[in-house]
Design brief:
By secondary structure, the chain is an alpha+beta fold. The chain is 36% helix and 34% strand. The chain is built from three helices and four strands; from the N terminus they run βαββααβ. Helix 1 runs antiparallel to helix 3 (75-84). The longest helix is centred in the first third of the chain and has 16 residues, at 19-34. It is globular, with a radius of gyration of 13 Å.
Length: 97
C-alpha cells in the first residue's frame, strides 16, 4: 500500500469561504468515490490557526505505484487539482506502509 498525503496552503488573500476554495473542497470530498484505485480517502480543513499549519489536507491510500500513477492521471483528479492551482499551493508525500 502507498499512503498519498497532500497539504494545501491557500494563497495570500484567499479564505475558506472564497467560492473557489468551497468548490475545490467539494471536488476533493467527492474524489475518493470517483476513482477505483483509491482504497482509503479522507480530506478536511485544518482546525488550528498556527502560522506554520497548512489549510486543507488529503490523506489517501492506493494499492501500489501503478495505482498511484492511474489515480494521478485520472481525469477527475486532474480536474480537481486544476481548480486548486488557481488559489493554493501544496506539498505531497507518497510512502509505502
Amino acid at each position: 500500500m502507498i499512503r498519498h498525503l497532500v497539504l494545501f496552503k491557500l494563497n495570500e488573500g484567499v479564505g475558506r469561504d472564497d467560492p473557489r476554495a468551497v468548490a475545490g473542497a467539494k471536488a476533493f470530498a467527492e474524489l475518493g468515490d470517483l476513482i477505483d484505485e483509491v482504497e482509503f480517502w479522507e480530506c478536511a480543513w485544518n482546525i488550528t490557526e498556527r502560522p506554520i499549519a497548512y489549510d486543507f489536507a488529503i490523506n489517501s491510500a492506493v494499492a501500489d505505484a501503478d495505482a498511484l500513477k492511474r489515480y494521478i492521471e485520472h481525469p477527475a483528479h486532474q480536474e480537481a487539482a486544476g481548480q486548486w492551482r488557481e488559489f493554493a499551493t501544496w506539498v505531497i508525500a507518497d510512502y509505502p506502509f
